[in-house]
């Protein structure tokens, strides 16, 4: 395991297979690493005025590539189009749904070219396969699931990957839906998920409720009250029954692509400047691009 990476095991039915910095890491069931020892901070002189740290601005891109090879929306062109979008838009965080493991490897190389001098963090989480008790597979035999791409200053920068499966699943669907989060340089917790598409979408609503009300707040507190952003195909819409807004906690912001993809953020993050990026029919979802402004002054001491 890379010395700068900690994979946190928690009580959310974790699947401990994570791809970090372009390498596939299989983590054994180990307890979470203890928090780092606090660093001494020079107190301000009496004549100094304490200043809040500046805000951090990041660009985030959500894409569903429909690249399993099994779904009707598969075209075989989605990965190439995703690479073009990453090159053109230069996002700081990319959340990916319906990808094969090698898609993340290829796209991480593209991501590195638009962030030279930075260290790319690439995390992958496979969806479970209930009949086999293993991972869901793409038609090409690779593991099928979700991913996150981001970058940090150096290879030694500590970062933690959190991943698991939702406790509520559709018993008629062999695919067990998962979630994934990356602690980005102690600045933001960047997460993704792909929720259930069956069961009248009520299962997706239950998964959304649990993720946003229980899982992500718990991880954020354990990581030092990190601002948290979630991008993903939630398979829920605003203004429909069930309504995606019913699982968004009070004070959180949300942007969507007009259909099923959403970006949600905790109150210490401002979302703006939604852009729908054409995928030229390479997949059945547009890219969803947003700007995050993270207000560090609202983070608890």
What does the model show?
Residues 1-32 form the signal peptide. GO terms for molecular function: catalytic activity. This protein is an alpha+beta fold. It has one domain (5-25, 52-298): 4-Layer Sandwich (Deoxyribonuclease I, Chain A). It is 16% helix and 35% strand. The chain contains 3 helices and 18 strands. The chain has helices spanning 78-89, 101-114, 202-222, and strands at residues 5-7, 17-20, 23-26, 56-64, 93-100, 119-126, 128-129, 134-135, 144-152, 159-165, 175-176, 178-184, 188-194, 228-233, 253-256, 261-265, 269-277, 287-294. The strands form 4 sheets. A 7-stranded mixed β-sheet has the order 1-10-12-13-14-16-15, with helices on one face. β4, α1 and β5 form a beta-alpha-beta unit. α1 (78-89) runs parallel beside α2 (101-114). Residues 1-6 and 9-50 have low confidence and may be disordered.
Features:
Deoxyribonuclease I, Chain A; 301 residues; 16% helix; globular; alpha+beta; disordered N terminus; 7-stranded mixed β-sheet; 18 strands
* N-to-C order of helices and strands: EEEEHEHEEEEEEEEHEEEEE
Gross CATH architecture: 4-Layer Sandwich
Query: Which shape, going by the Cα principal axes?
Result: globular
Number of helices: 3
**On the 0-100 scale, what is the average pLDDT?**
86
**How large a portion of the residues is in β-strands, by DSSP E?**
25-35%
- Oligomerization: single chain
In the sheet with the most strands, the strands line up as 1-10-12-13-14-16-15
The CATH class: Alpha Beta
Which helices and strands appear, and what pairs or packs with what?
Blueprint: E1 5-7, E2 17-20, E3 23-26, E4 56-64, H1 78-89, E5 93-100, H2 101-114, E6 119-126, E7 128-129, E8 134-135, E9 144-152, E10 159-165, E11 175-176, E12 178-184, E13 188-194, H3 202-222, E14 228-233, E15 253-256, E16 261-265, E17 269-277, E18 287-294
Parallel strand pairs: 1-10, 4-5, 13-14
Antiparallel strand pairs: 2-3, 4-18, 5-9, 6-9, 7-8, 7-11, 10-12, 12-13, 14-16, 15-16, 17-18
